[in-house]
Amino acid sequence: MSGKGESLGTVQRVVEILRHMAERGETTIKDLSAALGLVPSTCHRMLDLLAREGLVERNAARRSYRVGPEFFRLSALVQTHLDVRSLARPFLEQVVAACDETCVLSLYLPAEGHMVFAEKCDSSQLLRYQLALNTPLPVAWGASGRSILAFLPEEERRRLFEATGAAPATGQTVSSFAALEADLAEVRRRGYALTHGQKIAGAVGISAPVFDARGAVIGSLGVTVPEQRIAEADEAKLAALVRSHAEALSRALGAPDPLALPNQARSA
Predict the structure, then answer these.
(1) Where is the HTH iclR-type domain positioned along the sequence (predicted)?
(2) Alpha carbon distance 254, 155 (integer Å)
(3) Which long-range contacts (CB under 8 A, 24 or more apart) does 137-140 make?
(4) 146, 140 Cβ separation under 8 angstroms
């Protein structure tokens, strides 16, 4: 193997080791060797290299390794300089490139009990919706909100239901908490929400939840499409597109893999 090939191989192994330790926690050389398909001597050599840089540290008593202080320092610096909006932007652009419909990132504000459209990437279509950013909106209405609400703890869902008014676009009301819960159970089953004209008259919304490193829902990623431009056959394709990019964004935020979709309802 050439020097360049050896360097690329080493980098790949280092990345695999760091990813494994970040996702699984403390590990031994035996476990690491089995998980990554590397011989123990290679794992030992890579871990020694990383330990010298402070990226991992050895627990002599347990004969194991865990992420080190330099790894934490670098992670904190990245989080300081890159917010969710910036991180989400490429994912929004990828969705628009694939379907040419407006894609929006919504973020949940727990203290206020509202959500906002935090970032968007517009369609090139002449007929599209102008979404106001950073304006408080109800969580119980629209695909953008319901894809968040479905994965909140039950106690929080009930609190938000009790504070919910009529749908902004139609004036529709939620008849009961049980009726809302039935809708949200379907959202969890599918892994995305689909609504017609609840927040914006004449708009079809398709959104999927976005999770953080704790596995908690923090927002949603979705598309808003004029109803005259979408056929029933398009809904499944758009849902798959939205869900795959919401999951990719969640992984970029450090969410557990596999994500808690769609069958694990979050309870209080």
Answers:
(1) 8-69
(2) 25
(3) 137/168, 137/199, 138/114, 138/164, 138/165, 138/168, 139/108, 139/113, 139/114, 139/115, 139/164, 140/164, 140/174, 140/180
(4) yes
Of the CA atoms within 13 Å of residue 179, those in its CB half-sphere come to: 5
- Of 225, 215, 52, 199, give the one whose Cα is nearest residue 140: 199
Q: List average pLDDT for each run of 10 residues in the chain, which is 268 residues long.
A: 54 89 87 91 91 91 89 76 85 96 95 92 84 88 95 94 79 86 95 89 92 92 92 90 96 74 43
Please give the single-letter amino acid code of residue 43. C
Note the pTM of the prediction, 2 decimals.
Answer: 0.73
Tens of pLDDT, residues 133-161: 888 899 999 999 999 999 999 999 999 99
Rg of the chain on CA atoms, in Å: 22
Angle (CA) 218 117 194, round 5°: 75
Please name the amino acid found at residue 86: S
